[in-house]
Amino acid sequence: MASHWPENVGIRAIEILFPSQYVDQTELETFDGASAGKYTIGLGQAKMGFCSDREDVNSLCLTVVSRLLERQHVKHSEIGRLEVGTETIVDKSKSVKSVLMQLFAESGNTDIEGIDTTNACYGGTAALFNAVNWVESSSWDGRLALAVCADIAVYAKGAARPTGGAGAVAMLVGPNAPLILDRGLRATHMEHAYDFYKPDLSSEYPTVDGKLSIQCYLSALDTCYRLYRKKFDQQQKDTSKQPASLSTFDAILFHTPFCKLVQKSVGRLSFNDFLLSSEEERTKQFPDLERFNTATLESTYFDRDVEKAFMTQSANIFASKTKKSLLLANQVGNMYTPSVYSGLVSLLISGPAQELVGKRIGLFSYGSGLAASMYSISVTQDAAAFEKFVSQLDYVQPLLNSREKVAPEQFSALMEVREKNNHAAPYTPTGSISALFPGTYYLKDVDALHRRTYERTPTISNGVH
Ligand code: HMG
């Protein structure tokens, strides 16, 4: 049992997984008959990862959890809580968490709290918060927690299809972490909205009101940011210090349905800073923008002048604090629940680890429907520990480079196979096993009672990939 209140609770290790195959967005534009540049420049997407019928949410979670435990040499008995966030539901009753318990069977550890959480892309953040809350609570028994998020983001043919993707992230949570969740600095906004939802339980595809979803995202961002600023200012003991603003963060990461929206979001936060600043600050920090003095948040979600002016105003902030976090989102697409954590991984691998030591990272997590939070993470001051933590991610870039490009025709055909056989039973998937990365769990078959069986591709010498 723990004998004292745990300090510096946060992420002690992070593992990411993305599909081994992708489609090129330029080729997809041509294939879809979209105008050249719509997906690549208009949405800011270069490649889109996808899964064949060999992978489902269970297999993604089995793979990412196994890899994390193997790479970190964590014993199965050391885990006391495991939370899963996902919106890729394959069973209305049986949780993904219970499927993951297969991995713990041999160790005999069945004393693991936590279960699945669903609300669109927000489930991963809910899983992380639950894991952190457990470690910080009187229920904590001194062991580590795992927060797992995974999704396969697929859309019907049409405007939303290029904003798909897939992936999984597992985070090991405990005290004395290199990435510490700041206490008392979570700002949440939840509201009822039908912007993106999955009412057809027989289909993997969502019902989407694209324009409304963007408005909901931006308005939740406004609300969370203003609340975060307020909570931050209340925590500052020294009232002579500058109030919170974009300068509070050394890096700022966002849930990323497509990269262009993130660039606009940085502009949106700058617009909030502008509206919340005094006249004197406005003149100093926002020269030549006085024409927006009377603008309001509600009237400007799709106001081109405001958007352009504040994207230009915040261009340096985007370049220095956010752009690096978009690597995986640009190369893989929307992962749904893991999206903002793929941003965290992208940031961590973007340059020398020392540059992030002691820094503050802001994160905005959004899930349609809607649930959103802005919170912050402080990077440890312990440079050696942080470098070691980051070096565990050395595999990410080579793995990304080793993916196989698939022609849009083949991608479209594989989407049809998924679509046709979604929930089929009995069913034996036809997707290639050899196309998967080493150490990947895959769906072997589904029997007549819808029971799913998984196998794993061979691991290579280090036992991980
Ligand atoms: P659309 O409406 O067909 O696209 O689909 P558009 O006409 O708005 O074009 C997109 C951008 O490309 C525009 O840029 C065009 O101007 C530009 P903007 O003007 O907005 O800056 N464009 C071009 N640029 C260069 N060259 C060209 C060209 N042509 C056009 N030739 C939409 C876009 C996002 C609506 C669609 O893809 C969609 O519905 N996606 C899914 C919904 C979504 O991603 N929403 C985001 C916020 S909600 C969210 O994040 C939650 C989510 O992750 C789900 C969850 O929570 O689980 C989705």
UniProtKB/TrEMBL annotation:
Q: Which InterPro entries match?
A: HMG_CoA_synt_AS, HMG_CoA_synt_C_dom, HMG_CoA_synth_N, HMG_CoA_synthase_euk, Thiolase-like
- Which residues does CoA bind? 213, 260, 264
Keyword Lipid biosynthesis on entry: yes
Q: Which residues form the Hydroxymethylglutaryl-coenzyme A synthase N-terminal domain?
A: 5-178
User: PROSITE patterns given for it?
Assistant: HMG_COA_SYNTHASE
Q: In which pathway does it act?
A: Metabolic intermediate biosynthesis; (R)-mevalonate biosynthesis; (R)-mevalonate from acetyl-CoA: step 2/3
| Keyword ATP-binding carried by entry | no
Gene3D superfamilies the record matches? 3.40.47.10
Q: Which UniProt keywords apply?
A: Acyltransferase, Lipid biosynthesis, Lipid metabolism, Steroid biosynthesis, Steroid metabolism, Sterol biosynthesis, Sterol metabolism, Transferase
Q: What is its EC number?
A: 2.3.3.10
Q: Which GO terms describe its biological process?
A: acetyl-CoA metabolic process; farnesyl diphosphate biosynthetic process, mevalonate pathway; sterol biosynthetic process
Main EC class of this protein? Answer: transferase
Q: Output the Pfam families linked to this UniProt entry.
A: HMG_CoA_synt_C, HMG_CoA_synt_N
- Reactions mediated catalytically: acetoacetyl-CoA + acetyl-CoA + H2O = (3S)-3-hydroxy-3-methylglutaryl-CoA + CoA + H(+)
Could you tell me which residue ranges the Hydroxymethylglutaryl-coenzyme A synthase C-terminal domain spans? Answer: 180-456
Q: Which domain of life is it from?
A: Eukaryota
Example of a GO MF term: hydroxymethylglutaryl-CoA synthase activity
Task: List the active site.
Answer: 87 (proton donor/acceptor), 121 (acyl-thioester intermediate), 255 (proton donor/acceptor)
**Family assignment from sequence similarity:** Belongs to the thiolase-like superfamily. HMG-CoA synthase family.
What is known about what this protein does?
A: Catalyzes the condensation of acetyl-CoA with acetoacetyl-CoA to form HMG-CoA. This enzyme condenses acetyl-CoA with acetoacetyl-CoA to form HMG-CoA, which is the substrate for HMG-CoA reductase.
Which NCBIfam families does the entry mention?
A: HMG-CoA-S_euk
The protein's name: Hydroxymethylglutaryl-CoA synthase
Q: What is the lineage of its organism?
A: Eukaryota, Metazoa, Ecdysozoa, Arthropoda, Hexapoda
